[in-house]
Amino acid sequence: MKHISPDSGTGLDRYLGKNVLARVVSDLLNPLFLSPLVIFIISWILQLPALTTFLVTSAALIFYTIIPLILAFYLIRTKHIISLDLPVRETRSRLYIYSIISAFVLFLIFLFNLESLDPLIVIISAIYFINPIISLLINFSWKISIHTGALASAGAILLGLTFFYPSLASLNSYIFSLTILFLLLPVMVWSRYRLSVHTLPELLGGIVTGFGLTIIELFLFNNLW
């Protein structure tokens, strides 16, 4: 695995730079925070019991956010990656693999507790396990944006309720999906481009990959499950 030169270390000034707003947007909508939020929203739409919603969201926070974040800081400390932006394509694979393993463990936990959960929760966890695998394969030759991909996937999940789970479609799911796809996603594109982390093709590649894969997976799970 390629190591980053010690000269590539980051400080607060380098981290924030002159693009404070872009940095705030990028960090608030970080993929590590999006997945638990989506799980919580889906649990709320499904009207799961409060305790179940709490447990499911807490598990998502542990396996989608806390564990990958700890590992990311470890990789930064050991100079395997420069920052959470992951600007160097060749150094992304290790964090991808760690995140995939963590997501797979959560998928198994949800799957083994299917009787007490709605199948849609398990399906969402499967999507959050499968998408990073495909993104990792793409990353071997092309660096697409994880940020725009994750945000597009979140929008696709909520929009997919309309097409594949009409009984769950509601004004709330419309509002959430449209807000993500037509408001937050363009802001994210601006943010990542402004921070010079990605080119426009890489940002659009993330959107197409995240949205397209998620819609396809929802279609397949809806017909096969």
Automatic annotation (TrEMBL):
Keywords: Membrane, Transmembrane, Transmembrane helix. The chain crosses the membrane at residues 20-46, 52-75, 95-114, 120-142, 149-168, 174-191, 203-221. This is PAP2 superfamily protein. It comes from Fodinibius salicampi.
